[in-house]
Amino acid sequence: MKAHLKGCFNSAGHEEDSMKRITSIFFFFFIMFGCTLSSQAAPASVGIVRSVSVDAHILRKGTPIAAKTNMTIMNGDVVKTGPTGSIGLIFDDDTLVSMGPNSEFAVEDFLFNPSEKKLSFVVRMLQGTFSYLSGQISKLVPGAVRLETPDATIGMRGTHVLVKVEGS
Q1: What pLDDT does 122 receive?
Q2: Are residues 67 and 7 in the same domain?
Q3: Which of 61, 98, 106, 140 is the most exposed place for a label (fewest CB within 10 A)?
Q4: How many CB atoms are located within 10 Å of the residue 71 CB?
Q5: Residue 60 CA: distances (Å) to CA of 27, 30, 78
Q6: How far is CA 11 from CA 6, 18, 20, 23, in A?
Q7: In terms of domains, do 63 and 138 share one?
Q8: Is residue 89 domain-shared with residue 14, that is, in the same domain?
Q9: Residues 51 and 17 grouped into a single domain
Q10: Nearest in space to 111 (alpha carbons), one of 75, 63, 66
Q11: What is the pLDDT of residues 108-161, one digit of tens each?
Q12: Number of structural domains, the chain?
């Protein structure tokens, strides 16, 4: 094989340069393909659990996970507290949500990319008590924030809201 490659090039220096180029191109595509796969493999975090009592968990794709401080929150997560539970969440735009006992909250659509003007905060408050303190999305695009309950949708224009949702 080496003799054949040598015959294809005018000098040994060109053969070495060509092999370096081929190797560089291979690594470039390997890195690009690997980055694409890794970015698709793990969904992006939209926030974290700031504080939690013992009786709180997160349903992620139907699987319950015990909530822990600094745990990530993802789009599609359902956060639940039990009879003695409470939890505090901080979203990537600095929105704060606190939940009291026997509460259920679903992250429907969170998107915070101000440089591309992609902003959305849509959550469903299914049951329980909630405290909401608006973050940057509400300040940048107030109409992009919606707090949904079983009976109503609240369009936020900033500030602090307390909500109690009773079971149907």
Answers
A1: 94
A2: no
A3: 61
A4: 18
A5: 35, 31, 7
A6: 8, 11, 15, 19
A7: yes
A8: no
A9: no
A10: 75
A11: 999 999 999 899 999 999 999 999 999 999 889 988 998 888 887 676 666 777
A12: 2
**Residue 150 DSSP label:** S
State the first-to-last Cα distance of the chain, in angstroms, to the nearest integer: 76
> Radius of gyration (Cα) for the chain, nearest Å?
25
What whole-number distance in Å separates Cα of residue 163 and Cα of residue 128?
Answer: 8
CA distance 134 to 54: 26
- Residue 90 and residue 131 in one domain: yes
- In this structure, the answer to whether residues 131 and 49 fall within a common structural domain is yes
Specify the amino acid at residue 144: A
- 56 burial (CB, 10 Å; 0-12 / 13-18 / 19+) is buried
- Are residues 72 and 45 in contact, defined by beta-carbon separation less than 8 angstroms? yes
Q: Using CA of residue 82, residue 130, residue 98, residue 71, what is the dihedral sign?
A: positive
Q: Is the pLDDT of residue 75 over 80?
A: yes
Q: Name the residue range of residue 21's domain.
A: 2-41
Closest CA to 52 of 100, 108, 93: 100
User: What pLDDT score was predicted for residue 125?
Assistant: 93
